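Page 42, continued from yesterday. The earlier attempt failed because a stray header line got pasted into the input along with the sequence. Redoing it now with the clean sequence only.
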Amino acid sequence: MSCGARVPLPLARPDKSTPWVMLVVLLVGIVAAGGGSALAQTFPNKPIKLVSGHAAGGISDTCARIIAPKLAELWGQPVVVETRAGAAGAIAAALVAKAPADGHTLLINTSSAIALLAVASTDFPFDPIRDFALVGRMANVPTVLAIRASIPATNVAAFVEYAKARPGQLTGGSSGNGSSSGFALEMLNAAAGLDILQVPYGGTAPAVMGLLSGQVDMVFAELSLVQPHVKSGAMRVLAPTGSRRLMALPDLPTIREQGLDGVAVDSFIGIAAPAGLPPATLAKLADGLTQVMRMPEVRQKFLQLGYDPVEDTPERYAAALREDVEKFALIARRIGMRNTK
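This time it went through. Structure tokens are written below.
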């Protein structure tokens, strides 16, 4: 060996007392422990899909298109509305329930529809309660009983008398079997001893068009959908279907106030995500929805549609939905409604 040759030194195995090794170990531990939180903090990191369970022009589709651009501005990602109408909202709900629980696929639907799916006996590939993380409600949705204008009835009692004289001859449009409008018709038949045949459509908006064209004789629908046709004289609103009078029609008594008990469907619209959502992501979704619903221009659009905007939390939404499920299950058993548990 020459004097000028370099002798390679053996690489020493660092032990955990070496300062830089300790730092690396610490950083790895932090990343491993907080990976879920880090992912949640980056939400959203891609376009968000807002899935509507009702046909174009229906309540969920309309509300989705109001809030989508505002959420996109807030989160810095595109928010795309996707319509998956049919089966009373079950098709859209199944799609969202099976989506990754990362907050990028959301369901916008009426709470009554979700609650009714929970009591339906149909073999859905999801559980309407267990398989969703509830983000919050956006608005209470006024619904009414409307009939074609050619029927000589100006109140609920007169319509009941008219329908009783024609058993099996009248038809009622609904947004699908198992829908809230179909459920309301079942309640009306049971409460008044009527035999009105349900005609299911792909959504409430098509059902209203069915009434407008004379295909059906009555419908339970959102006030905003029938109001233009009431003004034109093609339809007549007999009563609100909820437990309270409507802000838009304060002088019109509810069905119960008009003497018919057992027909009450309060409806509100909200947003849900797949179950298993990281808490931080759920909190960010809920906060974003609250911010959007506080925007004056958004509130104004909802009010113009006849909807009452609300500010909500996941906890309050979950509690309201549980109450709906219990109420609908009780009513379904009492009236012997078909196709329910």
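Notes: The first strand starts at residue 48 and ends at 52.
Reminder to self: strip header lines before submitting.
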